[in-house]
Amino acid sequence: MNGRLSDAWLEELKSRVSLEEVVSEYVPLKQKGRRFWGCCPFHNEKTPSFSVDSEAQMYYCFGCHKGGTVINFVMDMERMEFMEAVRLLADRAHMALPEREAQPGQTSADREARERMYEANRAAARYYHELLFTEEGAAALNYLYGRGLNDSDIRRFGLGASPKGWDGLFSHLKARGFEADLLEKAGLVVRRDNRTLDMFHGRVMFPIINAQGRVVGFGGRAMGEAQPKYLNTAKTPIFDKRQGLYGLNFVKKERSAGRLVLVEGYMDTVSLRKYGVQSVVATLGTALTEEQARLMKRYAPEVWISYDGDAAGQKAALRALDILDAQAMPAKVIDYPEGMDPDEFIRARGLAGFEALPRHDSTTYRMIRAKDGLDLGGQEGMTQYALRCCAILKNVNSPIDMENHLRRLVNETGYDREILLRQIGMSPRTAQQPAARRHAPVERTATGVEKAERELISMLAAGLIPPELLKEEDFADETHRRLIQWLLSGKSAGAYVEGIAEESERQKIMQALNYTPLPTEREKALEEAEECLRTIQQDRDSQRSAQIKEQINSASPEQKAEMYRRMAAMWKDNED
Q1: Strand stretches in 142-293, DSSP E
Q2: Which of 23, 227, 289, 492 is the most exposed place for a label (fewest CB within 10 A)?
Q3: How far apart are CA 373 and CA 63, in angstroms?
Q4: Confidence class of residue 574 from pLDDT cuts 50, 70 and 90?
């Protein structure tokens, strides 16, 4: 479970928040009986298979099997961690988090200060945006116009300008009641020689907005030759550039894109989005970090690395691939021609040109970059290229991918396939072996016993059968057994689901809790339960019988007689 919040507090939170109201903010619902129905927000469908149980206060999709409580729903929709979702719902329900559990080491004064920092950042963003359209912001505005943006684009991204002087923002925010100490902690001002000065001045301002729509920091682009070219908010209690992404506030509405496009800069993000590219995000003045890679996994199943096409961008793409590989995040690299960056390219060739760009899988891109610095017109250069590629191919697990890359390498280098395989460390026989174990298992049809276990769980959770009718040992499936143990202890199904981090496990649990059709009358449910238990017992007896038969083959005559007697008694008891 969450480890910090009591079950009683969480149940109180969920009782104050209507699941159907929360879901309705994302999906239109129609009520049929105790359930509300709509099209699933987690996968594309035309016929509604997504349901909200108003009594159990749990949701479930009969198509993709995602489900859970209102906390799970917010986590899935907003790509939040557990405690983030709890805080959001607690704010909605006007419930205060338990003091000692709100955040380790954080007092109520700390939380109030964080809220004031959010307010100060929001006020600063408005100030910068309004300043952009004054005489003092003319240079920044002309810069943005020169980059192909119009007033609508500027408003959409909340772009602004910082004043040329040294204390314009400070004076503005101080007049609105923000203290100098708080503004310094928020990274908006700095203290020098007993003076309080603006952190940013004379720059084009890009507000950095988190997934919940709150301004957490800023990126400032210098005018002319001033250095540094880009300046970001320093680390604060509400901002850490290693853990955030620019443009993330747009992504939660773009679930259908199925991937994130990762760029290096603010203008790359703005330009690609202006021309219609969805789910574009940028690192915040740093190379891609592990924290950012883990964050991206919450938003999409794949990343397209869209870095500059020059040598520096290519090296950065290779480093990003290493980071994403370490997080098991599939990635492709977009290859820009002639050293162009994404902003230059999209303005020159538009969305159609972007969509036509080659996107290389990680291995292919590494093999392309393996040519860098080599003279492939000579034998020595070609040999080095082959050696570099063989080192890359050692990390390829898919036999089909390996075969495709090998064919290409044979054609490019002229080396014999078996020679390359030996260099990789594989024998030809190993390379040709089927790789059934390397592929994800194919979903199989549930057996009669599995269906019986699911129906019993659903009837128990729905209150159709008494708990004393079931025993933990009636359930062979480990997932079902753990769930039934929890339910028989009198705890709620929702509390159990919230404690499951693994998505596939949660889906299996939700399948068990949503077996259909269930009987509507208690008497009929009891008959169904007895039939399910008979199915389970017969399967158990069949397995025991098979074990005894196997043992009989190697038993002595005296032992065989005893085994046959046991089998006969077992089947007689079952008939009775």
Answers
A1: 160-161, 189-192, 195-198, 203-209, 215-222, 230-232, 260-263, 280-282
A2: 227
A3: 51
A4: low
